[in-house]
Write a structure and sequence with these properties.
The chain is an alpha+beta fold and 150 residues long. Helices cover 21% and strands 33% of the residues. The strands form 3 sheets. Strands 1-6-5-2 form a 4-stranded mixed β-sheet, with helices on one face. Strands 7-10-9-8 form a 4-stranded mixed β-sheet, with helices on one face. It is elongated, with a radius of gyration of 17 Å. 17% of the residues are buried.
Amino acid sequence: MAYDFQVTQDSVDPHPLADWWAETLGWEVEPSDEAFIRRMVDEGHAAESDTTRHNGVLVWSVGAAIRHPDGPQRAPRLLFQLVPERKTVKNRMHLDVRVGGDDVEAVVGALVARGATRLHDGRQGPYSWVTLADPEGNEFCVTPSAEPGG
């Protein structure tokens, strides 16, 4: 049996990080259902302290998700969940952002201007990549495409 999955990233500030990644990938932040959140609080299923405001919208404080504009059938959802501690060691898993025919250096430059940190450049045979860290220090790579010459 095959299972669906989402990718979950620990974060000390999930809503701004979700915004950053949505812009980076050209994805969208999942909209907040303020009426549902308010009803859960009013009925005692959640506390007011479980909520916060982000960009003027009532949201759950514990996380934010982004999704591909074509929906979950195109790519798994990314969830940024609240944790109390900052990242301290290298990721064991990371995203490879494939930019196709776009100029990798231009993409990397734009990401650095928006808060990413360039960590190192890599090459193995015909494959090359640039490893960066997002604003919370989570590593990811930018690659020209999935296949050499592709």
